[in-house]
């Protein structure tokens, strides 16, 4: 083997050693670093928010600390899905009885343009005195909806601009006493299944 071949072989070997050393150092640094990338297994749903309740009072997620929250996002001009889901929630609360006495049912508006606190107050009263309606500025509604991964979009009505509708997710969220996500229920869930699902998730 020529000297040039020996030199090339030594250079390749040296480069290989350096690559292995760099990988080893990088791995050690990643493992020993106090900041590590990891998965928690928790759903990224829920978190801080600031809204107005149906009495016109400013509330945040801390206002409901210690209470499980049962939330549904919609709008008061909704012709079918929203009233149906709120009625299902109300009936589930009745079926739970004392097992759900601390649960706070909440209706969150995705239509702040029309759903003022006064409008929300009249609306939620139809589903029981325990219900709380939340609304706010466009920015506040957008922020809370994003926190709960809720989709909504305004659908214009060219013939009647004020009679627009809203596309939105149709999901009921159950949050624990610590404000963390526990379970969600789809539009097809009836009151009995909702009550049973809530009781199971809360261990009651």
Describe, in short, the structure shown.
This protein is α+β, with helices and mostly antiparallel strands and 204 residues long. The chain has five helices and nine strands; from the N terminus they run αβββαβαβαββββα. Residues 2-39 have low confidence and may be disordered.
Provide structural commentary.
The protein has 204 residues and is an alpha+beta fold. It contains five helices and nine strands, in the order H-E-E-E-H-E-H-E-H-E-E-E-E-H. The strands form two sheets. The chain has a seven-stranded mixed β-sheet. It has a two-stranded antiparallel sheet with strand order 6-7. Helix 2 (81-96) crosses helix 5. The longest helix has 30 residues, at 3-32. The chain is globular. The N and C termini lie far apart (80 Å).
């Amino acid at each position: 083997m020529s000297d040039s071949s020996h030199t090339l072989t030594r250079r390749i070997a040296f480069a290989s050693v350096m690559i292995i050393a760099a990988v080893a150092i990088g791995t050690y640094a990643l493992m020993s670093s106090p900041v590590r990338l990891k998965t928690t297994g928790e759903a990224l749903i829920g978190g801080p928010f600031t809204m107005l309740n149906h009495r016109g009072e400013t509330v945040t997620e801390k206002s409901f600390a210690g209470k499980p929250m049962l939330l549904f996002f919609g709008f008061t001009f909704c012709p079918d899905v929203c009233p149906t889901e709120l009625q299902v929630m109300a009936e589930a609360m009745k079926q739970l009885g004392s097992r759900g006495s601390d649960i706070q049912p909440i209706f969150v508006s995705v239509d702040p343009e029309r759903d003022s606190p006064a409008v929300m107050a009249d609306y939620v009263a139809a589903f029981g005195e325990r219900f709380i309606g939340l609304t706010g500025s466009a920015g506040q509604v957008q922020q809370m909806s994003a926190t709960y991964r809720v989709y909504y979009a305004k659908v214009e009505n060219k013939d009647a601009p004020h009679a627009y509708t809203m596309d939105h997710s149709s999901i009921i969220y159950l949050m624990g006493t610590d404000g963390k996500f526990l379970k969600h229920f789809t539009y097809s869930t009836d009151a009995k299944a909702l009550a049973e699902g809530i009781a199971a998730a809360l261990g009651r």
